[in-house]
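Anyone? Bumping this.
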Amino acid sequence: MNSGQVDSNEVREKETERGKRGIVFTDNSPFATLKSVPISAVKMNDGFWKARMEVSAQAGIPSLYRLFKEKGIFDNFIRVYKKGYAPRRGPFFTDSDVYKWVEAASFALQSEDSSRLKDMLDEVIDLIIPAQDEDGYLNTYFVEEKARERFKNLKVYHELYCAGHLFQAAVAHHRATGEEKLLECAIRFADHLCKVFGPGKRDGFSGHPEIEMALVELYRETGKKRYLDLSGFFLDQVGFASLKEVIGHAVRAMYLACGGADYYAETGREDFWESLTRQWESMVKTKSYITGGIGSRHSGEAFGAPYELPNEGAYAETCAAIGSIYWNWRMLLITGNSQFADVMEKTLYNGFLAGVSLSGDRYFYVNPLLFSPQSLFSNQTPPPWNRGGYGNRMLVSGRREPWYDCTCCPTNSVRMLSSIPGYFFSLSKEGIWIHLYDNCSLDWHLEDGTKFSLIQRTKYPWQGKVDIEVYPEKEKDFSLFLRIPGWCKGMEALVNGERVSPKLANGYLKVNRVWKKGDRLTLNLKMKTEVMVSNRRISENRGKVALQRGPIVYCFEGVDNPGIPILEASLKIDKDKGSLVNLKESYYKDLLGGIVALKMDGAIPDPSELDSPLYRSFEEERSCRFKSVSLTAIPYYAWANRKLSDMTVWIPYAL
Amino acid sequence: MNSGQVDSNEVREKETERGKRGIVFTDNSPFATLKSVPISAVKMNDGFWKARMEVSAQAGIPSLYRLFKEKGIFDNFIRVYKKGYAPRRGPFFTDSDVYKWVEAASFALQSEDSSRLKDMLDEVIDLIIPAQDEDGYLNTYFVEEKARERFKNLKVYHELYCAGHLFQAAVAHHRATGEEKLLECAIRFADHLCKVFGPGKRDGFSGHPEIEMALVELYRETGKKRYLDLSGFFLDQVGFASLKEVIGHAVRAMYLACGGADYYAETGREDFWESLTRQWESMVKTKSYITGGIGSRHSGEAFGAPYELPNEGAYAETCAAIGSIYWNWRMLLITGNSQFADVMEKTLYNGFLAGVSLSGDRYFYVNPLLFSPQSLFSNQTPPPWNRGGYGNRMLVSGRREPWYDCTCCPTNSVRMLSSIPGYFFSLSKEGIWIHLYDNCSLDWHLEDGTKFSLIQRTKYPWQGKVDIEVYPEKEKDFSLFLRIPGWCKGMEALVNGERVSPKLANGYLKVNRVWKKGDRLTLNLKMKTEVMVSNRRISENRGKVALQRGPIVYCFEGVDNPGIPILEASLKIDKDKGSLVNLKESYYKDLLGGIVALKMDGAIPDPSELDSPLYRSFEEERSCRFKSVSLTAIPYYAWANRKLSDMTVWIPYAL
């Protein structure tokens, strides 16, 4: 079914070399400030992210591979070219999960030259390609009698969404391996789309965005401008320029925004930029959790109204957090403004990372900010006279799963973790940008081609000190741009032990000098436990606080607080200083993969209070006895890795 | 299609006289403590409920009659016997709404002998009856080609639910008018059900309970025990005895519990009683709003987990509140325990009554405890790439509607309001029970037949003093049982001006003596504004209070607090006394139909604070300036009768 032909009249404008392009390749984008640094140029050393990447590559990626086999998801491809091989299984968008896995494995290959991974990847790609139709169409759901329905219902079915994930996978695979087979498959399908859709051809857009950003990246990889134009066509069909806030299905909103940002980076369309900034403001000012989680409504997996951010009822889908990271990364590449990196970092360490187990092979779909196993009892026994009716509240189990019927979050999570090194650095004419901090080394070049390497040494995110050694191939005048995180209230920087006066531009400390081999830059970011409050309009959080230390948002989990009904506890805050009482911040090497846990004074009601009525008078409540206790908080991302217990991010305080 | 025949071998065990039976007729129920007093025996005088009943009878009932005509809901009956008359319109359960309306009109006829109402009622009943099939089956959805699907999918379709509403309407109509035509129609259908369902016949139960209580009442009206047995059969099929908590769809849970209670009142089945008390405890202790509203989840219109009681996200369907009143009324009749009357009263004045506009012809489906018009802006413009996906959050508009596509709440609301007088009094061997307080008179008899009348004079619910004059036809030794509401912290009672020592039994003050004509009993219920708090497990309400005065729960509505961002305000509470500061309670005759409004001191943030970030440090927040203001609260039931503005029941406090 596969013609194996690529249009021979077309010459790729640029050849790429293996491992030389970043995840979002903005090097030739006229409206981007920053250029990409590929994953392969960054080596993660022992530290926070390396541990997570390793379990994901060694447990997560192979586990999904096995589950695809077990659930017949690979077979969906085979059955297209082997009649009667197997029945089609899973939802109509299962192809996209395989493509996301291919992308994840391709990213992982840039970090580690694993033959085991390469073999799996080759096997899967070789399963996919023969399923392509002669005209370039590829989707395992719309085959046989359903082939007649291709492109008939773009709003409901995810053909363009699946196509987009194929394109992203193909680009990632090409960048990782230099091999062209999957890229050629993507090009054939993209060319088919260009024949079907566009001005004067068929109208329409995808009900689930994704194709928009994928087409721009395929344009960047191949130089074929028609892909960029088709992306713009779809974005205009949606009416992207007129969107005023983030709204509706959160993952879709994020992916669409990514497409809009990518298109802007290439074209500078002003109305797109205005739409992007309006949407971003609405998200960051009114529709985000403190974890960076977004999309508060279970119903429709959607953004709520401004300030509608329930804690127990939060949806905050893992995929939506990933989508926000993708979008903010693009906004950062366009502007070089750290406000986008702040959202990205906050979401990486909290809203996203909570979605993945410490073992790397289990995932949350929904990420509540308050959880009680007690809530489950009602969920588990639907009454006999009721026909379902719980909606997707069923998903909040407090247990991460290796797989979901709609398994977007697992595949997205391994994809995100494999790509982490790609978000650490950027390049501009002026020098090197450092967005994230962790033990790692960079082996790359300056914009003029001067070879350049760098080593980061730090205990980030547990400590705020970052040591950086730079190794330009020769003495060279350029700048290092060091992101000063939004959470940081004080910092100092030293070059070779001497303090430099901080010059902040767009949230980055710019250190310009003639750098030579072995120069050391030390960044001291003041890191302390911050007591955070939320805007009064988040009604549920009035009178409550959350704890944040550096980029890490904390939570109180029952398992660390034995005998304490954590959902009925309150923190003590020193009335005069406004600070926690008896705060102790300690690093526990063996707890939850190594974390800083926090201890502080709090109070719980007398046990006799536990059975108090649902409502009673203030006077009655005032006569209650309370007991002082010490409370323990752990990073939110690490919750639900032990036995099921109560958990809350926001906790009431008493002065 | 209607055979017009009633099984002539059956003789009704009891004849009823017009206007002589209560709404739930427990006079012959072996396991009920209290006997019913019919609506017709109670005359409401100018006061709180009379005003609501009048607008409902004069505006609500006729408005629904017009809307049934306009929407083709009556035509659904006519088209059954006039081929091609009209297409079928509305959801598959529209018959039930007509039956509920018939029941409402029948109740109203017991209060007021209105020929206009009687004419409407006759017209509607004469439309219904010919639609009955020869075998007794009656449902306008399962006709023509759909007739084959009768009773095929009881869990989804509402055939037994509609049947139940027909039976209730028929019983109410018979009790109100003494006419038999609709009752005969109901009997024919019930006999058909008895032929189809039961041990050794067809299994099954209704996905939407209602038939269970209706069959028991039809048994009470006709004496045909097979109806009681069929009710028990359905209840056992559902597994009623093993239910451990209220769970799932709230209206369904309430109606099922009503059926279980009715069946218990007749049979004394101990396992049913245990199930009823377990369910009731779980509802009252963990799953009710302070308004009495229940069913907190939009998703599935369902009860949430224990303590899952979001304010803005509350579903709290008007029908569920009504269902709770029905159930608690049955529990009260069984036990004579005021804890059930407390829930009933709280729900009547708050959770239910908020569902009806002061004009009596507009209704809420959903009753949130916090509302902001700002939330609507996001709801009204679904994004182009999103396929719906808001679920029923769309229903929360802050505006009551005269009709819904699923118009259960409007018809249930007029039914509830028409039946109010039936909930005021009961009878037992020992005497007369007074459950509710309002200006009214009772003209009835004691259990031994001694004629007896009584006049209540009060400004309840605005004042706690109730004057009662009793008129037994002759001097007689019996007791008056006066409910001492759960909200009341202090009371005194005087007979002919002399204090009596209060003897409380099951929450009722029992005043036993030889009563003679003109004896006066004065009850002084201490009524003051109570500052209420909720159980700590309702996370959202931590640090917040709600105001309650007598049975009335208050709310803060923007329209009464001009220039005050009410959702960002807080109350002042005197640290030493634990009370509101500068509280003023005043009756406003012309405001919202006459209410006591509350004024007290509070604080709002400086206007510069309105644009504060979503999250910031406690220290930053502490430096905010606040402004003292006077805040106004109105009864929750009266909200949303003026222009759209913010509203909240729970409000943070500062000591």
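Late reply, but here is one note on the structure posted above: Chain A has a mean pLDDT of 93.
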